[in-house]
Amino acid sequence: MAEAKKYPTPVTNPETAPFWEAAKAGKFLIKRCTACGERHYFPRSICPFCFSDKTEWEEASGEATVYTYSLMRKSPSGPYAIAYVTLKEGPSLQTNIVDCDLEKIKIGQKVKLVWKPTDGAPLPFFTAA
Amino acid sequence: MTIKGKAYIAGIYEHPTRHAPDKSTAQLHAEVAKGAIEDAGLTKADIDGYFCAGDAPGGLWPMVDYLGLKVRHVDSTETGGCSYLIHLGHAAEAIAAGKCSIALVTLAGKPRTGPMPARAAGAEADFEAAYGATTHNAYGMCAMRHMHDYGTTSEQLAWIKVAASHHAQYNPHAMLKEVVTVEDVLNSPMISDPLHRMDCCVVTDGGGAMIVTTPEIAKSLKKPLVRLIGHGEAMKGPRGGKDLDLTYSAGVWSGPRAFEEAGVTPKDIKYASIYDSFTITVLMQLEDLGFCKKGEGGKFVADGNLISGVGKLPFNTDGGGLCSNHPVNRGGMTKILEAVRQLRGEAHPKVQVPNCDLAIAHGTGGLLGVRHAASTCILERV
Question: CA of A69 to nearest chain B CA: how many angstroms apart?
């Protein structure tokens, strides 16, 4: 059994600290703007769409579908699948598909959130649902 | 206000090296600067504007000092591989505004010799760095979605590499001179699905430079006259994850701006330099620039349509980044240089486009599948 891949510890900053604090409690937060109603990810304090500062944290379901992916076969740390997944709540985000048969990933496939540990807050990944 | 016809490319130089372990990066910048200045028939003392990007060691003031320049206008716009296309547009703006009259733009570096220095992280770092986005897999994700949405095939992508290899065989400096087939591309190892090794560009040391100047000065020099008549620049990213669509690039904005300023359309273009970090880069750019409809790039590039003397749109007749040169992992400069050679009639006779009087040089920078810039230049022989 290969050793678990070591992921970088989030540096965090005052703007994103609530996301990482929630992550430690297993909650996956996105931002929603109460002015225009749009959700976005990664989180900003000012809405990237309407530029309102009325953004709120909202817990997301962790349910998503694969928008696209690429299986990186030439990597010193072994093959891995980078992907964009689209959350049930709307926003798409970059991630890796993990803990499933990477040769069987398909665009449109349902995936769900899994957390991977770091030396600080855990990081969000996705696996076959 | 327009830059149309207000700036000419009077000097060009592409370093012949593809591997330079015995030279410094600053030295390569100086060598390409010297080459372009001499090509123009000027001297270093004539230079009054300098442009460089993230590949220049230390940035502007160390470079200006190292090269021994005395300039009154500088610009270090950094947009990855298309920085130099943007520099050309900005040099034209500066010249049109009288801020400088003879601008030098340089690119050089040594990724083949050793790893490139890391770039400063953006606000997204904590939310993306762990996922291992590289050029290969970021462009792989674009290709994967393009195939899903439009039925584009690996065979169609392979035709882009095949066309580049047909041109590279005539370039004595090309890193890869062997003509390859669609089968060769498909049989090369898969790097990051669906991109094979031969869908990827070369990694080369080296560089290039150009001199941009006023119409009056260009006309006083001896080289054939090549001028910029349209320029566009744009950027695209996931923008909060809303309506993600990786099948188009910022070229959908930079291209129309350049064509509108130039007053021409894609149908008028005789030669196209199109950034070819990967085969998918070319296919998407051709669609985004309007050479064919979105989704029809696969059909457009197939069957040798990009081969000079064979197809309708001769592209990257130096062999491009796929076969000849991709200095510092930044292909924008060499795109301009080959377009100027075509317009001057200085391309290799086997790939020279007859009566080539209108060309496009277009590039992207950054990662097409993540955040990137695009810039389009329309160039005309006078």
Answer: 5
